[in-house]
Amino acid sequence: MAGPLPLGDPAPADGHLPSSVRVDHDVPFSAYLHVPFCRVRCGYCDFNTYTSSELRGARQEDYASTLIAEIELAARVLTEAGGLRPMHTVFFGGGTPTLLPPGDLARMLDAAASAFGLEDGAEVTVEANPDTVTPEVVATLAAAGVTRMSVGMQSAVPHVLAALDRTHRPENVTTAVRAAREAGLDVSVDLIYGAPGESLGDWEQSLDAALALDPDHISTYALIIEDGTKLARQIRRGEVPMPDDDLQADMYELADARLGGAGYDWYEVSNWARGAEQRSLHNLAYWRGSDWWGFGPGAHSHVGGLRWWNVKHPAAYAQRLAAGDSPAAGREQPDPEAAMLERVLLRSRLAEGIPIADVPESGRERVAELIADGLVDPAAALRDRQLRLTLRGRLLADAVVRALTD
Question: Where is the Radical SAM core domain (predicted)?
Fold first, then answer.
């Protein structure tokens, strides 16, 4: 399970937003639907997820109805805050959304679409564990309005999957992708690099296997050791080594070369797509600071600059909604300085970059230094007044953000 929730102000039981927060109909609106169930918790994962033995009173078979109650509450709250907007994107994440019957996911999507509406051409994504995908599951999701499936491949190498505690077989990724394609869905695959015992050759094998699937989109994430996870405990006990930063840098450069050579363009530090139309619109909504409502236990929301987060445990989440109360545990409204820092953190990771004018004044004074260090594109900075990361800058993105915001 994930760490503690953020500190913040108490959230009202009725979920109403402060009078200072009004819906801006020019800002896109998205929905994130969290499904917190997993058969097995992966050793590296600190997401808010629960195996069957940890539910303590919550029931998976009741979950869709519970989440739909939050959708109904959200519609009331947003109507009072200025009106409803059709959803630009919908994303089912987890956990393992496809552990639920596909009919339950369809019910949740239908409830959200009925409450808010869907924009024409809206992107609707479901994350999927390869072992839970069948042609019947995908056909039901496609018929319900799902347009995109994000398959948790992680690796094509058995010993790397074992190091990550992933239980799926590599061949099931191929089966899942084929089923999604046959149902007419766009396909993304997720990879993780830097697992204990993973070599550069292992990583190359995984990249080759991912490219052989011919997906529309590929995400590659460096393994991060999160406190409280099984993997963090194994490292602390000396059972497995810490990820090697230099090796992870080599792996990233290899991914950029192989994916770029295969026709995929990077548009965010960890994401590549085959053309602009295949980019993850949902993730772009986060990076560009759009509005979204996060449904489900532990989910976070953002509307009009206000942020809030739900109680974490599925049982507490269900109890709140059964009583007619909001599941929100706390909320905050960042001040202008904090909002600026967050904007730099998120927008600088995009290939489109961030206008220099949106960077704090102290950061603007560091631009020449960043150019000299090969971290930002000199032509974009000098001609377009736009900060765009170079390949070296992507490898050192956190350092660039610190230079721009310290």
Answer: 23-262
3-state secondary structure of 127: strand
Report which DSSP code applies to 336. H
pLDDT range class, residue 2, cuts 50, 70, 90:
low
Any residues with CB less than 8 A from the CB of 53 and at least 6 apart, and which? none
Report cis status (omega within 30 of 0) of the bond before 95: yes
263 φ, ψ to 5°?
Answer: 95, 15
Q: What share of the chain is helix, strand, coil (3-state, %, to 5)?
A: 45, 20, 35
CA distance 330 to 74: 16
pTM above 0.90, yes or no: yes
Write out the E strands in 7-117.
29-35, 87-94
**Secondary structure letter of residue 5 according to DSSP:** P
Chain region(s) in the chain for CATH 3.20.20.70: 29-287
Choose the CATH number for 335-406 among 1.20.120, 1.10.10, 2.60.40, 3.40.390.
1.10.10
Burial 98-116 (b: 16+ CB within 10 A, else e): bbbebebbbbbbebbbebb
Q: At the fourth CATH level, which superfamily is domain 29-287?
A: Aldolase class I (3.20.20.70)
**In contact, 30 and 91? CB cutoff 8 Å:** yes
The C-alpha atoms of residue 180 and residue 75 are separated, in whole angstroms, by 31
Residues in the chain: 406
For 210-252, the pLDDT digits (tens) are: 999 999 999 999 999 999 889 999 999 999 999 999 999 999 9
**What are the tens digits of pLDDT across the range 146-199?**
999 999 999 999 999 999 999 888 999 999 999 999 999 999 999 999 999 999
